[in-house]
Design a protein that fits this description.
With about 500 residues, the protein is α/β, with parallel strands linked by helices. It is built from 15 helices and 22 strands. The strands form 6 sheets. A 7-stranded mixed β-sheet has the order 14-17-18-13-12-19-20, with helices on both faces. Helix 3 packs across helix 7. The radius of gyration is 23 Å and the shape is globular. The protein binds adenosine-5'-diphosphate (ADP).
Length: about 500
């Protein structure tokens, strides 16, 4: 990738965006818009439609109509697969444009954005497109005179509420399997990262996805998100975001039609380093990358370093050294390792978390402050807080920013206890050269994912889902398809 190609796209004027409903760009019913502020320099990038409940209802009605008349679900599997594959190709062909647009909108460093956003979205759409004509139904092991036939049917209308950290990656984790099995979707992007998802839906139309099958409504969570959650005509709600919003969605479901709600709510993932692990410099680099990439705005970020006490001092020094190589900078420069924090609001929350950690007795050994303020953008130094106790708020509460806590342990048992001492259970990492210990840790850590001798990078072939207050239901892999289908039993007397 050439820097000049990025530079050429990075000053393009971004047109004002509208909703995409029934295949058309539609303004809000009351004409409302909201400014899109680029975290790179705090400037206004463009505007998006500030949706109303009426807009959301219109999108849901369009999705329902598309589902009922079968314009998508009743197409032969091979035809749907062709559309999904063409869509994946188009995403790839437009990858640089999408990555630059996304980085300007949400601040993710471009090298990571390219890989994690368009390229991963294309891979996900292709994977689920490929699955369309590979999934079979079941014949039950019944008595001889009956036939028990079990099939999976699309649920109908799926609502997907997407966060701002990786909109294309997380968005396609939901709409990929939902569309592959024939559902219609209404997508609600985050206020501060809507632009690439609108473009993604335009590319779907270009690939041949019929109008109304994928609709995008932008605006405030508390308005259009709420209308989606409370709708009597949405069958499944798939969400990634904060615990507070997740709880609201469950309430919306209870207050409306009992729609199924799948929640991915982040975590406080432990990254555990044992003293027998070799090459501390390499591990330190992985630990720093595991928390600081995308300014820590990663749901699986390894935000709690747990390190065995006899190597603690050396290892923390190694992490500090690795972190000095990760200076925040302009997200549109290829060499930038850490881009901008998504919004001014998020930056304030991150700084607040550092203040709280200090109040609780933590020791800031690196970073801790806002930086590059003269750009007008929102940047934060990667921050390491040592001496964090299990009762400290930094140990217990997700920051969703570039803040790593350090806690030491004396043996495997204590490492497991500490790892499992939060309400969350999304991801984790273990560094050990002892294979038996690796397997014991895999079994003992209460989390959806355990990385061993690596961190992050798990692709679409494996599920990602949390336990405890990290949520329920998994994104990715063929298992995700279950979320967007109902089982149908046919019991036939022979
Ligand atoms: P964060 O605090 O990290 O921004 P949120 O959970 O607020 O996380 O945001 C994730 C997504 O949830 C966004 O698309 C946002 O608009 C949406 N959202 C926020 N509040 C609500 C709500 N009350 N109902 C439905 N969706 C919401």
């Amino acid at each position: 990738m050439e820097q000049s190609a990025i530079d050429a796209l990075s000053t393009n004027k971004v047109a004002s965006q509208k909703h995409l409903i029934d295949g058309n760009a539609i303004a809000s019913s009351d004409g409302g818009t909201m400014d899109v502020i680029s975290p790179i320099d705090g400037s206004k990038l463009t505007t998006i439609a500030r949706g109303t409940a009426e807009d959301m209802d219109r999108a849901i009605a369009s999705a329902r109509e598309a589902f009922v008349d079968g314009r998508w679900k009743d197409q032969p599997p091979a035809a749907r697969k062709r559309v999904m594959h063409k869509w994946a190709d188009l995403i790839e062909q437009n990858a640089l444009e999408l990555a630059v647009l996304g980085a300007r909108d949400n601040g993710t460093e471009i090298a990571m954005a390219l890989k994690a956003e368009p390229m991963s979205a294309a891979a996900t759409i292709r994977y689920y497109g490929e699955a369309i004509d590979k999934k079979y139904g079941e014949i039950a092991p019944t008595a001889k005179d009956v036939l028990g036939m079990v099939t999976q049917e699309p649920v109908g209308v799926v609502g997907a509420i997407i966060p701002w950290n990786f909109p294309l990656m997380i968005g396609t984790w939901k709409i990929g399997p939902a569309l592959a099995v024939g559902n219609s979707v209404v997508l609600k992007p985050a206020e501060t990262a809507s632009l690439t998802l609108i473009r993604l839906a335009e590319l779907a139309l270009e690939a041949g996805l019929p109008q109304g099958v994928l609709n995008v409504v932008t605006g405030e969570g508390g308005v259009v998100g709420e209308a989606l959650g409370l709708s009597m005509d949405v069958d499944v709600l798939a969400f990634t975001g904060s615990g507070a919003t997740g709880r609201r969605l469950l309430e919306y479901s209870a207050r409306s039609n009992l729609k199924r709600v799948y929640l991915e709510l982040g975590g406080k993932s432990p990254h555990i380093v044992f003293n027998e692990a070799d090459d501390l410099a390499h591990i330190a680099k992985a630990v720093a990358g595991g928390i600081f990439r995308n300014s820590g705005q990663v749901c699986v970020a390894g935000s709690r370093l747990l390190v065995q006490d006899d190597i603690k001092e050396d290892f923390v020094n190694a992490v500090v050294k690795a972190t000095t190589q990760m200076t925040p900078g302009n997200p549109l420069q290829l060499e930038t390792k850490i881009g901008a924090v998504n919004s001014s609001n998020q930056l304030q929350q991150n700084l607040q978390a550092v203040a709280i950690a200090t109040e609780d007795g933590g020791n800031v050994v690196f970073g801790g402050k806002r930086c590059l303020a003269d750009t007008g953008g929102f940047y934060m130094e990667p921050t390491i807080v040592d001496g964090v106790k299990v009762s400290d708020r930094l140990f217990q509460k997700e920051v969703f920013g570039p803040v790593l806590s350090v806690t030491s342990f004396k043996d495997e048992q204590e490492a497991i206890m500490l790892a499992n001492s939060t309400d969350y259970g999304l991801a984790s990492g273990v560094w050990t050269s002892n294979i038996s210990r690796a397997h014991r840790m895999i079994k003992s850590i209460r989390a959806g994912v355990v990385h061993v001798n690596t961190y992050g990078g798990a692709d679409v072939t494996v599920p990602l889902g949390g336990v405890g207050q990290s949520g329920n239901g998994s994104d990715k892999s063929l298992h995700a398809i279950e979320k967007y289908t109902n089982l149908k039993t046919a019991w036939i007397q022979l």
